[in-house]
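[step 3/7] fold_predict: job queued, chain A
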Amino acid sequence: QVQLVESGGGLVQAGGSLRLSCAASGRAFSSYTLGWFRQAPGKEREFVAAISWSDARTNYADAVKGRLTISRDNAKNTVYLQMNSLKPEDTAVYYCAAGYALGPERLTGQYEYGYWGPGTQVTVSS
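[step 4/7] structure written:
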């Protein structure tokens, strides 16, 4: 029923920018938190950012504060991750996820999200 599809990944040089999009469909997301996670080769999945669909409250991992910004467009059913000042350590597959209730302040673990997109690759070169 719920489908999440990421787009916007690619290759960018260090210091550059990318904007990832997550198209959400299948239901109304008023009671959901939408999150971004990333996973680098050989590493565990890492929380990046989250946003409440209803009122756009946000939460960020310390590693990305000030560089990455999460937002959502209710009319388009789309969540964005604007990535600026990218670093090689940002290289990973980025996943969009949806979890019911609780809010972005608490939904920072991957097992708190029930729906996932297939991911989009972000590669930052030196």
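[step 5/7] annotate
The mean pLDDT is 96.
DSSP finds no helices and eleven strands in the chain.
exit 0
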